[in-house]
């Protein structure tokens, strides 16, 4: 459904064109309207990505406070624990093959930190895709983006060691999913994420001591 023209909105609300355009831009950011050049704005439904994206500023502010990262890591643990149990119970052969391919790319990226981070994110993304729920995907992408942005800068050597550990833990997760063992998949996932949290906490402590 189309909204009235800018001129009609200006007359209806008794405001100037800048105010109307600012309001429309805000609605667009929230995913509530679609704006194309030369056309009237149209009402639209917000996507899952748009809804989660609206929380980004608040999430990043929360992460900057003491305990913020730990709370988000716990949220990720609870969330991915459910995902991995679902995968072990319901993943198709094709979905397990996609996990195996993501794992292979993981192994090929061990000596390149930037590439490994991308392959690590992709591995967990494939896991989040298995239920086929777009809201899960939006939450997963946002959680990782927020947590990665909050991580400290560390040396390449330290990251190389961390990469190898994470890769071995990914293998354990995939093996359990392939065996359709939700309890073992959950244990492997929790061991992995707890290890990741502890490692980055240690990196952060080391970085703070050097300041």
UniProtKB/TrEMBL annotation:
Gene this chain is encoded by: nanR
Record has Transmembrane helix as a keyword: no
Coiled-coil segments: none
Source organism per UniProt: Escherichia coli
Keyword Repressor applies: yes
Matching InterPro entries: GntR_C, TF_FadR/GntR_C, Tscrpt_reg_HTH_GntR, Tscrpt_reg_NanR, WH-like_DNA-bd_sf, WH_DNA-bd_sf
Molecular function terms, GO-annotated: DNA binding; DNA-binding transcription factor activity
Keywords: DNA-binding, Repressor, Transcription, Transcription regulation
Location of the HTH gntR-type domain: 1-46
Pfam families reported for this sequence: FCD (PF07729), GntR (PF00392)
Highest taxon of source: Bacteria
Protein name from the UniProt record: Transcriptional regulator NanR
Record lineage: Bacteria, Pseudomonadati, Pseudomonadota, Gammaproteobacteria, Enterobacterales
């Amino acid at each position: 459904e189309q909204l009235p023209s800018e001129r009609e909105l200006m007359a209806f609300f008794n405001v100037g064109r800048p105010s109307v355009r600012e309001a429309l831009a805000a609605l667009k950011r929230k995913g509530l309207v679609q704006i194309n050049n030369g056309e009237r704005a149209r009402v639209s439904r917000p996507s899952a990505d748009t809804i989660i994206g609206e929380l980004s500023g608040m999430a990043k502010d929360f992460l900057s406070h003491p305990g913020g990262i730990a709370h988000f890591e716990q949220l990720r643990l609870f969330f991915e624990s459910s995902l991995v149990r679902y995968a072990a119970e319901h993943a198709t052969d094709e979905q397990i093959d996609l996990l195996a391919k993501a794992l292979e790319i993981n192994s090929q990226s061990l000596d390149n930190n930037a590439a490994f981070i991308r392959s690590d994110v992709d591995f967990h993304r494939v896991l989040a895709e298995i239920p086929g729920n777009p809201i899960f995907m939006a939450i997963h992408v946002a959680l990782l983006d927020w947590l990665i942005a909050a991580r400290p800068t560390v040396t390449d050597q330290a990251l190389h060691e961390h990469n190898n550990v994470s890769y071995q833990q990914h293998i354990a997760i995939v093996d359990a999913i392939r065996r359709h063992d939700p309890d073992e998949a959950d244990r492997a996932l929790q061991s992995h994420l707890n290890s990741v949290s502890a490692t980055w906490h240690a990196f952060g402590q080391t970085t703070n001591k050097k300041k």
